[in-house]
């Protein structure tokens, strides 16, 4: 029993041990070596990420409360890659004097939220799902308020906390209705007992979906996003917009495909509407943004709308496409955030007009930013094109031609505002452009990895085939 | 028959308390009063647990929510410098709109709930003694809760660390930055 | 039958209290002047507002108290069945405890428990 727990839950256990070790080291080492804990954490987490790719069998534990299959492990691996990049990017920020004395706590809390996402993905009943969700969202408010000497950051923390409490309230009410309808909160019981749609189940599903839509910041549940993203420290914003969003997208996929496939007719219309509203509003608001963080916030709202397209193909293809899209979204968005982080760390500037003439002084960073934005908008040679293409194919195969058409229109709108930033960097004149930035080796290696990733994940077919093979074992 | 109606009477009595104090909580103009009204809402909820013969949960509700969380809320209110201030009155338009939305939402939910055909359970009422709770809490099997029990400790740990990080005085706020 | 008794008890209690208040309200002469509503005993009228701002230390203590309060809630049912379940229960609580105690050690080390 003990052995099977260790082998099946090894990813969770590994991550929790790393998080606890970070806190432990922070307690025992002396002041001078505090910064070295970061290196240990980075190394351990790197190993943890690599170890996740070793093939191993999944299984059920605790009477079905926890279950993991190759597809879940793959999802966790995708998140791991993103978190590893976020950690690399956070190195310079963690060294700043106001943050340095609480940098290890940052790592510990960040890894704890990631473990919450793990438990959420592997949950076999609504209780574990809910606890995972809470672990993934309550400490997140602390991260958002981490620069507490800035009132914007405090505002972001409290806004996130209140909004997430509200959405959790919705979600819990939905879960209690599921219990009322089925008499159990285990997923396998639910699929067995709830065989046909009833108004009660529809209501429960509505509450559940609105709770998750809050976390995924889908329109009309997106109001908190821009303020929280703008106020949080840049590293936390990138974590919010890729990792936490990716995890909720995965969980939504698992819930809808594996727990509620019989209610396809109910939730597909909802997803359809949400997708259209999210894509349009996200894109239209993104055009108006002047601040790079707000700009990326709205672009990430729009991207979440695209992810929903994958949910409409209720088959393995849907899951494959979502994982592939999230992987490439993590790489591209983190590349964009990495450049913004480098600029912010060097100059403290985060407005788009500050990027005017950026290419003159920082050609390499400008090229990386351009690549990232091209990938986000889906321009052919880079990976973003392939992920969007597969997403649209999946939706079209499910018969949603109009939705694909709307999505293509939105891709064009998105292209317009992504190109606005590119234009600012390459064409707009600026008498005093930003000075040449020399970022530290962690950030540079993170950007290097994202650039390689943006090129290779699109062109190399083994990546897609690997995801396919893992999902088919599901 | 008598016992059922009595049960129902008690239930409705506490429901009324909860509803009234909930409304007072959100409409009160003074924040400290709102916190006090909230206390009664939480106590009313504890009464529900006692009605359901779930004494452990009821006691827990009183110690944690009434004894802990409300005290914490009152502390955090007294931390701010604007304790005595009244809230700005909410405009009639907003008031009516939000009341309308809440009523429609509540009405719709009630309509669905009252028309749902719940499957009546044949199982006897579970014995909610502390012993059974303990056994379930530590059980690995189905309907055991050892995994959530352990995982919750992570949340508590993150909460402790996070609370200290956010609330403690920073060394760089003080005069001497090296003085930890 | 106990419920019938209970109802009688409740009704009697309510009626008695209500009767007392009503009698006092009906029988007692009522008068009002400004002196009556002023504070007595110490006799000094307050100056300014009686609200005062708390030290943030109270909050930290209350928060830590709450977290360990939650912990006791989990410990209580465990303690009841510890003997019947045996070693497994001990290991389970040990894991829980180590994690929480790490938090306590953190609070101690960072001097969150020290009054500032």
Description:
- The complex is a heterotrimer of chains A (474), B (180) and C (116).
- In chain A, strand 1 and strand 2 form a beta hairpin.
- Chain A is mostly helical.
- Chain A contains 21 helices and two strands.
- A two-stranded antiparallel ribbon of chain A has the order 1-2.
- In chain A, helix 8 (151-182) packs across helix 11.
- Chain B is an all-alpha fold and 180 residues long.
- Chain B has two domains: 1-83, Up-down Bundle (Four Helix Bundle (Hemerythrin (Met), subunit A)); 126-172 and 176-180, no CATH class.
- In chain B, helix 1 (2-27) runs antiparallel to helix 2 (31-51).
- Chain B is globular, with a radius of gyration of 22 Å.
- Mean pLDDT of chain B is 83; it is low at 174-180.
- Chain C has 116 residues and is mainly alpha-helical.
- Chain C has a domain at 56-109.
- In chain C, 68% of the residues lie in helices and 0% in strands.
- Chain C is built from three helices and no strands.
- Chain C has helices spanning 2-27, 56-85, 87-109.
- In chain C, helix 2 (56-85) runs antiparallel to helix 3.
- The longest helix of chain C is centred in the middle third of the chain and has 30 residues, at 56-85.
- Chain C starts with a helix and ends in a 7-residue tail after the last helix.
- The mean pLDDT of chain C is 81.
- At the B-C interface, helix 1, helix 3, helix 5 and helix 6 of B face helix 1, helix 2 and helix 3 of C.
Q: Please state the second-level CATH architecture of the largest domain in chain B.
A: Up-down Bundle
**Rounded radius of gyration of chain C (Å):** 27 Å
Count interface residues per chain for the largest interface: B-C, 46 and 49 residues
By DSSP (H or I, 4+ residues per run), the number of helices of chain B equals 6
Shape descriptor of chain B: globular
What is the CATH C-level name of the largest domain in chain B?
Answer: Mainly Alpha
């Amino acid at each position: 029993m003990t052995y099977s727990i260790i082998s099946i839950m090894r990813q969770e256990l590994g991550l929790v041990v790393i998080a606890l070790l970070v806190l432990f080291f922070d307690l025992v080492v002396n002041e001078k070596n505090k910064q070295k804990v970061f290196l240990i954490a980075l190394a351990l987490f790197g190993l943890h990420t690599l170890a996740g790719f070793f093939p191993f069998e999944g299984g059920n534990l605790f009477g079905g409360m926890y279950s993991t299959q190759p597809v879940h492990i793959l999802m966790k691996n995708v998140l791991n890659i993103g978190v590893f990049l976020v950690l690399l990017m956070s190195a310079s920020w963690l060294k700043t004097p106001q943050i340095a004395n609480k940098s290890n706590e940052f790592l510990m809390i960040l890894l704890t939220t990631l473990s919450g996402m793990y438990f959420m993905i592997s949950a076999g009943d609504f209780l574990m799902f809910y606890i995972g969700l809470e672990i993934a969202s309550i400490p997140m408010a602390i991260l958002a308020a981490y620069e507490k000497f800035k009132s914007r950051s405090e505002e972001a923390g409290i806004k996130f906390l209140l909004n997430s409490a509200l959405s959790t309230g919705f979600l819990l009410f939905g879960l209690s209705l599921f219990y009322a309808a089925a008499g159990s909160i285990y997923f396998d019981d639910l699929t067995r007992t709830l065989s046909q749609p009833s108004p009660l189940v529809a209501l429960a599903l509505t509450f559940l979906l609105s709770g998750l839509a809050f976390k995924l910041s889908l329109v009309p549940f997106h109001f908190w996003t821009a303020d929280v993203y703008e106020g949080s420290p840049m590293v936390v914003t990138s974590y919010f917009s890729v990792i936490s969003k990716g995890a909720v997208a995965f969980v939504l996929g698992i819930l809808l495909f594996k727990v509620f496939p019989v209610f396809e007719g109910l939730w597909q219309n909802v997803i359809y509407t949400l997708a259209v509203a999210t894509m349009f509003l996200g894109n239209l608001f993104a055009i108006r943004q002047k601040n790079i963080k707000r700009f990326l916030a709205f672009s990430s709202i729009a991207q979440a709308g695209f992810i929903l397209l994958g949910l409409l193909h209720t088959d393995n293809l849907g899951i494959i496409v979502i994982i592939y899209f999230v992987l490439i979204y993590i790489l591209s968005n983190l590349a964009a955030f990495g450049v913004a982080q480098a600029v912010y760390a060097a100059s403290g500037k985060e407005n788009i007009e500050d990027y005017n003439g950026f290419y003159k002084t920082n050609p390499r960073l400008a090229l990386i930013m351009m690549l990232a934005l091209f990938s986000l908008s889906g321009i052919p040679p880079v990976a973003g094109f392939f992920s969007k293409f597969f997403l649209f194919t999946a939706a079209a195969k499910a018969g949603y031609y109009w939705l694909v058409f709307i999505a293509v229109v939105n891709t064009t709108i998105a292209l317009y505002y992504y190109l606005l930033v590119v234009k600012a960097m390459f064409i707009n004149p600026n008498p005093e452009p930003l000075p040449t930035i020399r970022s530290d080796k962690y950030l540079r290696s993170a950007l290097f990895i994202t650039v390689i990733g943006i090129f290779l994940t699109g062109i190399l077919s083994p990546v897609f085939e690997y995801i396919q093979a893992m999902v088919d074992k599901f | 028959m008598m016992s059922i109606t009595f049960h129902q009477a008690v239930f409705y009595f506490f429901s009324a308390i909860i509803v009234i104090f909930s409304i007072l909580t959100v409409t009160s103009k003074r924040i400290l009063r709102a916190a006090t009204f909230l206390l009664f809402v939480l106590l009313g909820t504890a009464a529900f647990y006692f009605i359901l013969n779930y004494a452990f949960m009821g006691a827990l509700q009183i110690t944690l929510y009434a004894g802990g969380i409300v005290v914490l809320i009152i502390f955090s209110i007294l931390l701010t410098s604007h304790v005595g201030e009244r809230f700005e009155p909410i405009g009639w338009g907003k008031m009516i709109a939000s009341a309308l939305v809440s009523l429609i939402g509540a009405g719709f939910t009630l309509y669905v709930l009252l028309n749902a055909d719940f499957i009546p359970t044949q199982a006897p009422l579970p014995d909610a003694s502390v012993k059974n709770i303990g056994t379930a809490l530590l059980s690995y099997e189905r309907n055991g809760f050892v995994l959530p029990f352990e995982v919750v400790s992570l949340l508590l740990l993150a909460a402790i660390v996070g609370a200290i990080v956010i609330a403690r005085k920073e060394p760089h706020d003080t005069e001497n930055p090296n003085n930890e | 039958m106990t419920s019938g008794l209970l109802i009688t008890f409740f009704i009697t209690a309510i009626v008695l209290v209500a009767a007392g208040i009503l009698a006092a309200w009906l029988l007692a002469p009522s008068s009002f002047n400004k002196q009556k509503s002023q504070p007595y005993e110490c006799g000094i009228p307050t100056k300014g507002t009686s609200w005062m701002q708390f030290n943030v230390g109270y909050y930290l203590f209350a928060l830590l108290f709450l977290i360990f309060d939650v912990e006791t809630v989990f410990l209580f049912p465990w303690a009841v069945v510890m003997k019947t379940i045996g070693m497994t229960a001990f290991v389970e609580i040990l894991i829980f405890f180590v994690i929480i105690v790490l938090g306590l050690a953190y609070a101690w080390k960072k001097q969150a428990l020290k009054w500032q």
